[in-house]
UniProtKB/TrEMBL annotation:
<protein>
    <recommendedName>
        <fullName>Methyltransferase domain-containing protein</fullName>
    </recommendedName>
</protein>
<dbReference type="InterPro" id="IPR029063">
    <property type="entry name" value="SAM-dependent_MTases_sf"/>
</dbReference>
Length: 174
């Protein structure tokens, strides 16, 4: 599918999961600015709306004013100081969220060149589950998967066997 240009394993699993749960007739509000995966969704027939780069910790206006059927947040919640407030303002009844999982053998990600590209949260699966429950959602389906790297060493070996990503589909409890 996207083997050469994109992180193929993560994007292929995410796209398959999206197709399993979401129809192309539903409009998606994808948290974050346009990105390679929002382009993949569009290439697969989905109508995608993105945020404009506003500080999502303090400004959730777009979540309240845009028209959308599904909310997605792929690898963005770990960058937010307050993901609870974001989920509180989601008006869709369906959400798909993926997060990188906290790894016991690696510290939280922090870019040395970009002051914004940092993980404020390093989630465990139960923490995202609880966050969704506290904001009125019930998890319908989930999957965990690894993220192997092409390097030698103990950490790369552990990445072959330790799940790195957690992807969930949840629906609002009525």
């Amino acid at each position: 599918m996207y083997e050469k240009t994109y992180p193929s394993k993560r994007f292929n699993i995410t796209l398959d999961f999206l197709k399993k749960h979401i129809s192309t007739s539903e409009t998606i509000f994808d948290l974050g600015v346009p990105n390679p995966f929002s382009k993949i969704m569009e290439d697969n027939g989905y109508k995608v709306i993105n945020t404009k780069g506003e500080d999502l910790d303090t400004n959730q206006e777009a979540l309240r004013t845009e028209n959308y059927d599904v909310f997605t947040g792929f690898e963005i919640f770990e960058h937010l100081l307050n993901p609870y407030t974001v989920l509180e303002n989601v008006k869709a009844d369906k959400v798909l969220i993926s997060i990188p999982l906290r790894l016991w053998f690696s510290s939280a990600y922090r870019s040395k060149t970009d002051k914004w590209d940092r993980h404020y949260h390093e989630f465990e699966d139960w923490q995202l589950d609880w966050l969704l429950e506290k904001t009125g959602f019930k998890i319908v389906d989930s999957v965990k998967f690894t993220h192997p790297v092409k390097k030698l060493g103990l950490r790369p070996l552990l990445r072959w066997i330790t799940p790195r990503y957690y992807l969930v589909y949840a629906e609002r409890i009525k």
